[in-house]
Automatic annotation (TrEMBL):
Protein known as: Protein SRG1-like
Organism, as annotated: Trifolium pratense
UniProt cross-references to Gene3D superfamilies, sorted A to Z: B-lactam Antibiotic, Isopenicillin N Synthase, Chain
Amino acid sequence: MDVTSILVPSVQELAKEPLTQVPDRYVLQDHETAALSNTTSLPQVPVIDFAKLLSPDLNLKGHELEKLHFACKEWGFFQ
C-alpha cells in the first residue's frame, strides 16, 4: 500500500511572507469546536503564584506550596 502525505509548509516558511489571513488548515470550524466541547475535559495545568510563596501569610504560603508540590509531583518540573 502506497502512502502519500500532503505537503504542509512549516511555520518558518509561513512566517517568511506576511499573511493576510490564517490558512484554512489552521482554522477550526464551528462544527469541529462543538465536537471538542462534548469530549471529556482536559486536565487543568497548575498555575503557581510565586509571590504567594514569599508571602508572610502562612496559610497563603502553605496553600501555594501545596499547589507547587502537586505540580512537581503530578506534572513534572516546570519551565
